[in-house]
Design a protein that fits this description.
With 288 residues, this protein is an alpha+beta fold. 31% of the residues lie in helices and 20% in strands. It is built from 9 helices and 10 strands. Pfam families: Fapy_DNA_glyco, H2TH, zf-FPG_IleRS.
Length: 288
């Protein structure tokens, strides 16, 4: 799933490719992806792209005052095409293509989604705040107003909720997902199950520094990369996420996993939980 660093890099890459180009046509191949009807997609025809920005994990293409807002969900991606086919795509449940944006020089974007679970969303709005997911976003962790006091207030407000869930909830902090919450908790040497309001002053400082460093470094590494390079860059720098059974790069202990209904988390017992494996209730039920 693209998270803040990848979406930031996508915005930068697409800004250079799309700015001052006119949108000729938008083809929707997966009707479930389009979440709005007013204004209609035809309103984009002839619109000039002014900017491409990010709101949390949402990508925002600003075109003559209209905003094409994309949420790539778990398996979505944006692919640049130097030349798009002249024949419009046919709607199909089997094709990964969800939306195609055609520009005035016949280049364009293919917005795709792998797999059968269709969660990718596209909105055409006059104001990004009209998108419910943007309107409810928490603070961005890389802005100047995300201070340690803001983080303290968030954690106190969330009470005994597990710190992992608090960090990846978009209404609490914008842009951090499953992968980077694993990574920054590993950097902070903190259990993902630790209650949010249980951090002392030193732990709070450590977590704040980990958020700024892990997310900030990932943004800097991704800056300037083309969309096609971002997934590989992200995977090559993960310490624990997606590395179940492999050695921790810090201490050499085996990275472990806790599974949930539709996701999982990875952690290092030595670095994060005092050497004790966390209970994996899903696996426990399977073994009974």
């Amino acid at each position: 799933m693209p998270e803040l660093p990848e979406v930031e890099a996508l915005a930068l890459d697409l800004r250079g490719r799309l700015r001052d180009r006119a949108i000729v046509k938008v083809h929707v191949a997966a009707f479930s992806a389009l979440k709005t009807f007013d204004p209609p997609l035809t309103a984009l025809e002839g619109a000039l792209v002014d900017d491409v920005t990010r709101h949390g994990k949402f990508l925002d293409i600003d075109a003559s005052g209209l905003h094409v807002v994309l949420h790539l969900a778990r398996a979505g991606w944006v692919r640049w095409r130097d030349e798009v086919p002249t024949i419009p795509p046919k709607p199909s449940n089997k094709s990964p293509l969800a939306v195609r944006i055609v520009l005035d020089d016949q280049s364009g974007l293919d917005i795709t989604e792998a797999g059968t679970r269709k969660s990718l969303a596209m909105y055409l709005v006059r104001d990004p705040a009209d998108v419910p997911g943007i309107a409810s976003l928490g603070p961005d962790p890389l802005t100047d107003d995300f201070t340690i006091d803001v983080l303290r207030q968030i954690l106190e407000r969330e009470g005994r909720k597990q710190i992992k869930g608090v960090l990846r909830h978009q209404g609490t902090i914008a842009g951090i997902g499953n992968a980077y919450s694993d990574e920054l908790l590993h950097a902070a040497r903190m259990s993902p199950f630790k209650p949010a309001n249980s951090l002392d002053d030193e732990e709070l400082q450590t977590l704040y520094a980990a958020i700024r460093t892990v997310i900030g470094d990932a943004v800097e590494r991704s800056r300037g990369l083309a969309a096609s390079e971002l997934k590989g860059e992200k995977k090559s720098h993960l310490a624990v996420h997606g590395r179940t059974g492999q050695p921790c790069p810090v201490c050499g202990d085996t990275v472990r996993e806790v599974s949930f209904a539709d996701s999982s988390l990875q952690y290092c017992p030595t670095c994060q939980t005092g050497g004790k494996p966390l209970a994996d209730r899903r696996m426990s039920r399977l073994l009974k």
